[in-house]
Write a structure and sequence with these properties.
The chain is mainly alpha-helical and about 150 residues long. The protein folds into 2 domains: about 90 residues, no CATH class; about 60 residues, Arc Repressor Mutant, subunit A, CATH 1.10.10.10. About 75% of the residues lie in helices and about 5% in strands. A two-stranded antiparallel ribbon has the order 1-2. β1 and β2 form a beta hairpin. α1 packs across α5. The longest helix is centred in the first third of the chain and has 36 residues. The radius of gyration is 21 Å and the shape is elongated.
Length: about 150
């Protein structure tokens, strides 16, 4: 009996994880479409995301973060800098080193356009949902959040 319960819980956990992943993918689709229009390769997208979320970093740290060789990462940074997406700045702590950072255009896009693109699928879906469905969604997410947070307290 306990074995069936454990099996059921694992199946439920797998279902929840799969659905959350699918929801995340749906939510990110418009933003991914913008990245695709920018003709960024997967490694370039990884570099851009690492830089953006770090507020700038050294080439050595970037290589470690994206798991690519120094020469590969440096070439990616050079190509992205040539397109006006990244820039190299002298380090404020050691002028011998440079910090790679997103350009103001990229920071502006991520601050203003990306949140709108990410919200678009949810807003569209919520417009189609009834008030009762919206309440069920919120209640379910709040419950999941609460029971997950217990694990980290």
């Amino acid at each position: 009996m306990a074995r069936n319960r454990a099996s059921d819980l694992h199946q439920t956990a797998d279902t929840i994880e799969r659905q959350l992943r699918e929801i995340r993918d749906i939510i990110r689709r418009p933003l991914e479409g913008e990245f695709a229009r920018g003709q960024l390769t997967a490694p370039q997208t990884s570099v851009m995301q690492a830089i953006f979320h770090s507020q700038g970093m050294s080439l050595k740290d970037l290589c470690r973060r994206v798991g690519l060789a120094h020469s590969t990462t440096s070439g990616i940074v050079d190509r992205l800098a040539a397109r006006g997406l990244l820039e190299r700045k002298p380090s404020t702590t050691d002028r011998r080193f440079t910090i790679i950072d997103a350009t103001p255009v990229v920071r502006d896009f991520m601050a203003k356009q990306a949140p709108r693109l990410l919200a678009q699928p949810l807003v569209t879906a919520l417009k189609r949902a009834t008030a009762a469905e919206v309440r069920l969604i919120i209640d379910g997410l709040e419950t999941l959040h609460r029971v997950l947070c217990v694990l980290h307290d």
